[in-house]
């Protein structure tokens, strides 16, 4: 039996971040196919046997009537136990997407080679930088015409502020895409399409020095010449490969490929597993010291709470990132915030395409615990006798705001209870305008769908009808100055700017545009603002 330390050392836990449609689902699926975790490609269209991409969690939810969003796919490959955390995009993009990144030890950023760095990627990237986790880049869709790879590198560096180090380099793009050059092994991995997106095959992989006539034959003379020029430029560039910079999120190793046609996925996976770190340590806020993941005692924190996995029950599932030691089903654990010992009766996780009960898990893994309403986001649980407390999860800036008012004023109690519970679960954020009560609150959400979910849940779970008015705010900033230092009433602000408080008493400003934000900064030189609330990392 491997020891706890060996189990932990074999873990690699990461999330894939991307703008919708860049290819996150396709890449996830190809990784699962490649590692033998699934047998059928969900992207094979028009066949009765076609299965959905396993990571298309929302579809699975619809089909099976269960909710498995933001879960984890686990597989083993080449001695590593790999956890891929789902980061919902599209309509189900929400604060949970951000919170999931707090539980990952690395991120893979998928970029559409024709589009470059897009809005949602920038937001997700910023969250990754809070913890300085390593970020690997996969430039996708090389089978289509893409932008010049040098331009893309420059854009990543300029827009995201991270150094780039191409690990592979594309040979042509679109119809002329011939494969990739692996800079480390100096191999050319050549591919050839046969006109059908999924029927592309690897036609050769040779280790040959650039300039070798064998390469003329494999990829064509002109491609070979262009590749030599590109590599000469790259080898002469300033950015050295620096593992320490990668591990601290200052340099991103970049890979090129086409997830759909399986170009470049294999070199990516191999290098990723070689370079990505085993579970990182989280800091115990009580001692200020990092907690060693390989330590025997179990500890972890709740990063996400999912309501109503089974609609017949009101149970919730609390997703816990294990930070140290070993989890065993049925074990006793101390819930720090609740100050009591509880039994961790059931754990679930997504094992490839089946939800399975987990009997044991280790630091780096995620387990889902049935939660009768005990936990809040950010809570710590640990082995009885161990005293640690992990930092709270930051609050992320919502981008949509609405005023929610209860329709039937006699149901005030239920309304307040519903709003507070849903906010505690992290489904929405609620704000109080300075000087007003709780019968009407401002609600902020990262994704607009959250408002509908909120209304529906207030109706079905709390029997409360509400009315909703959209508000024009789109930018939110937490005030960093202490109340002694700064009285918000004295701030000079435009008329469109709103002063509010969050549930934790944090003071914030809501702006309708960058112009109003800039105005506030300019006219209040001492004002310190942050895009995240509650950050203690
Ligand atoms: P996402 O999870 O990041 O949102 O992206 P997803 O993988 O769903 O991919 C979005 C679309 O891009 C899909 O096409 C997918 O087939 C396509 N795609 C992904 N990787 C590649 C690639 O390497 N090359 C090309 N040419 N296309 C790629 P769709 O037509 O929108 O969806 P579907 O109907 O094929 O599922």
TrEMBL record:
BP term (GO), one: regulation of translational termination
Superkingdom of origin organism: Bacteria
Domain Tr-type G: 9-280
GO MF terms held by the record: GTP binding; GTPase activity; translation release factor activity, codon nonspecific; translation release factor activity, codon specific
CDD domains found in the cross-reference section: RF3
Predominant place of localization: cytoplasm
Lineage: Bacteria, Bacillati, Actinomycetota, Coriobacteriia, Coriobacteriales
GO CC annotation terms, alphabetical: cytosol
Subcellular location per the Swiss-Prot or TrEMBL entry: Cytoplasm
Name of this chain's protein: Peptide chain release factor 3
Family note: Belongs to the TRAFAC class translation factor GTPase superfamily. Classic translation factor GTPase family. PrfC subfamily.
Keyword Cytoplasm part of the UniProt annotation: yes
Protein species of origin: Tractidigestivibacter scatoligenes (Olsenella scatoligenes)
């Amino acid at each position: 039996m491997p020891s706890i330390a060996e189990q932990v050392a074999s873990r690699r836990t990461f999330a894939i971040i991307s703008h919708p449609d860049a290819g996150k689902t396709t890449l996830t699926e190809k990784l699962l196919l490649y590692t033998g975790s699934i047998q059928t490609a969900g992207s094979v269209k028009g066949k009765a046997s076609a299965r959905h991409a396993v990571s298309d969690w929302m579809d699975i939810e619809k089909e099976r009537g269960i909710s498995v969003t933001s879960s984890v796919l686990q597989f083993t490959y080449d001695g590593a136990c790999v956890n891929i955390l789902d980061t919902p995009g599209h309509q189900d993009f929400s604060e949970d997407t951000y919170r999931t990144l707090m539980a990952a030890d690395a991120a893979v950023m998928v970029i559409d080679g024709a589009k470059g760095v897009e809005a949602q990627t920038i937001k997700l990237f910023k969250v990754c930088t809070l913890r300085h986790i390593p970020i690997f880049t996969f430039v996708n869709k090389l089978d289509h015409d893409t932008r010049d790879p040098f331009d893309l590198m420059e854009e990543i560096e300029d827009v995201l502020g991270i150094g780039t180090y191409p690990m592979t380099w594309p040979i042509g793009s679109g119809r002329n895409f011939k494969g990739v050059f692996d800079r480390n092994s100096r191999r050319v991995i050549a591919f050839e399409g046969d006109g059908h997106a999924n029927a592309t095959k690897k036609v050769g992989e040779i280790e040959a020095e650039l300039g070798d006539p064998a390469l003329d034959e494999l990829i064509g003379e002109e491609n070979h010449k262009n590749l030599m020029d590109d590599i000469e430029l790259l080898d002469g560039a300033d950015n050295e490969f620096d593992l320490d910079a990668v591990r601290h999120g200052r340099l991103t190793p970049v890979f090129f490929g086409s997830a759909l046609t399986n170009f470049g996925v294999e070199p990516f996976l191999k290098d990723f597993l070689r370079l990505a770190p085993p579970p990182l340590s989280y800091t115990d806020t009580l001692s200020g010291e990092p907690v060693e993941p390989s330590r025997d005692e179990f500890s972890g924190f709740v990063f996400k709470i999912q309501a109503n996995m089974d609609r017949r029950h009101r149970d919730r599932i609390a997703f816990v990132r294990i930070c140290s030691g070993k989890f065993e089903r049925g074990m006793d654990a101390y819930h720090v915030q609740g100050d009591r010992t509880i039994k961790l009766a059931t754990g679930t996780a997504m094992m490839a395409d089946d939800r399975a009960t987990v009997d044991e898990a280790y630091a780096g893994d995620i387990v889902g615990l049935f939660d009768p309403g005990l936990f809040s986001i950010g809570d710590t649980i640990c082995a009885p006798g161990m005293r640690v407390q992990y930092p709270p999860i930051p609050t992320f800036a919502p981008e949509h705001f609405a005023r929610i008012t209860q329709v039937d004023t006699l149901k005030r109690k239920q309304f307040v209870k519903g709003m507070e519970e849903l906010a505690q679960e992290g489904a929405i954020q609620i704000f109080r305008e300075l000087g007003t009560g709780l019968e009407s609150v401002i609600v902020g959400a990262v994704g607009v769908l959250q408002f509908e979910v909120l209304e529906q849940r207030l109706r079905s779970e709390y029997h409360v009808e509400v009315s909703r008015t959209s508000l024009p705010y789109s930018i939110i900033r937490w005030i960093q100055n202490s109340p002694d230092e700064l009285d918000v009433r004295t701030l000079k602000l435009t008329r469109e700017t709103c002063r509010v408080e969050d549930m934790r008493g944090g003071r914030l400003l809501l702006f309708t545009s960058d112009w109003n934000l800039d105005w506030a900064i300019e006219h209040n030189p001492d004002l310190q603002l942050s895009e995240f609330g509650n950050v203690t990392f």
